[in-house]
Automatic annotation (TrEMBL), chains A, B:
Subunit organization: Homodimer.
Organism: Azospirillum oleiclasticum
InterPro entries per the UniProt record, alphabetical: PhoU, PhoU-like_sf, PhoU_dom
Gene that this polypeptide is encoded by: phoU
Chain ranges of the PhoU domain: 22-108, 125-209
Protein name per Swiss-Prot or TrEMBL: Phosphate-specific transport system accessory protein PhoU
Length: 242, 242
């Protein structure tokens, strides 16, 4: 790599790439927070804003891809710089998906609000807040290139998965007791699943922060605690009923 | 770029990268096909195989990332070669997700099979077959670097989204009529959603094939026909009932 203005240009482009990916993370976090306000606090006026705001994240992902190709072609970064470009591409893809899920939650929330008997939306509060914090912290871990913070985010995903499995059972029981709530609860189940998947994407981001700093993805398989796909609830036999 | 054995080594590494991503696509397709056999044809003995097989796709994704970094560092590919490396990274990420969804479908299918009254699993047939074909064709589009085939795959995703929305309504009605089926139908809804998302990932792959060949991602926003997040079904008022 040459000296002088080439190095300065390279540094400026790397900073721009990093700032763009950071923006994606911050916007994704804000989108998710707003989507949760739509569901949990009924702030319906935010729903359209979340749906419209998703296009910005999509555009930023395209920009990251184009910037990465340009950087790789013209600057031929090496070692950690090269890993940063590759990790940024991967992280941008995950942030884009997080934005998609936030949009989906906001859309469904608008539908829920129209139902005569709203389902128990507060059950999403804990999971939602946990995942907002994961997205925030993993974006900071990327900016600060802090693998310890990244691993801490990754380790929290197990709790989110476990909360999702518990909520899945709870909502299924609720639907069986109140079949008029099936529609609403189904949307709530999908929102909970979206939150759980956002946790997975934050985990992927965390793994790429480790790759960026250390040159290797964390090896050991994270223990997956989402057991909802194994969950069966059969309707309780009522001994008084025939 | 030097001549002779350097060029030969570069070509060999590019072919290896491409072959690894192709393998991911072929395995993802096979995993998805097996997962559908578990659900639709009740071939339960395949479920464990699908769950175990997912680790292979995950490992291949790691390998693609390491190969891409190595190629970028040592060979400094340019123009279309560079785009191929970047697109391969992105495509590998999408194939990995497709594998995850196939595993999820297989797991849920094993649960469904234990239910006393199985839900209408055949309703997934059309969507499932469409998406298997999308994954197959988009892998071929990547290998042949054929943007027309890629765009054809992308255009088919609208039908899958529309089928998903129709199925969502159908299953909701079914659950309201037969509350003892709520558990089974919920798993079926999540399987349908997984199939719909696999279609989205195949679409992302298609867009990256276009990027690889043409240097730009397809610009116009694909029309999203998954309207299930707007779907509300309230329980029919029975005029004979009080």
């Amino acid at each position: 790599m040459a000296i002088g203005h080439t190095v300065a240009a390279f540094d400026a482009e790397m900073r721009e790439l990093q700032a763009t990916v950071e923006s994606m993370g911050r916007i994704a976090e804000r989108q998710l927070e707003m989507a949760l306000k739509v569901v949990i606090d009924g702030e319906l006026q935010l729903a359209d804003q979340v749906v419209a705001g998703d296009a910005e994240i999509d555009q930023l992902e395209h920009r990251v891809q184009m910037m990465a190709v340009r950087l790789l072609a013209l600057r031929q970064p090496m070692a950690r710089d090269l890993r940063e470009v590759v990790a940024s591409l991967k992280i941008a893809g995950n942030m884009e998906r997080i934005g998609d899920f936030a949009r989906g939650i906001a859309r469904r929330a608008a539908v829920l609000a129209d139902l005569p008997t709203p389902p128990p939306v507060r059950s999403l509060t804990w999971m939602g807040q946990s995942v907002v914090t994961m997205v925030r912290d993993v974006t900071t871990a990327y900016v600060k290139q802090d693998p310890d913070l990244a691993m801490a985010v990754r380790n929290r995903d197990g709790e989110v998965d476990a909360a999702y499995t518990a909520l899945f059972r709870e909502l299924l029981t609720y639907m069986m007791e109140s079949p008029q709530q099936i529609g609403g609860c189904t949307h709530l189940l999908f929102m909970a699943k979206a939150i759980e998947r956002i946790g997975d994407h934050a985990t992927n981001v965390a793994e790429n922060v480790c790759f960026l700093v250390k040159g290797a993805l964390p090896g050991e398989e994270r223990i997956k605690q989402d057991l909802s796909s194994f969950t069966v609830l059969t309707r309780k036999e009522d001994p008084n009923e025939g």
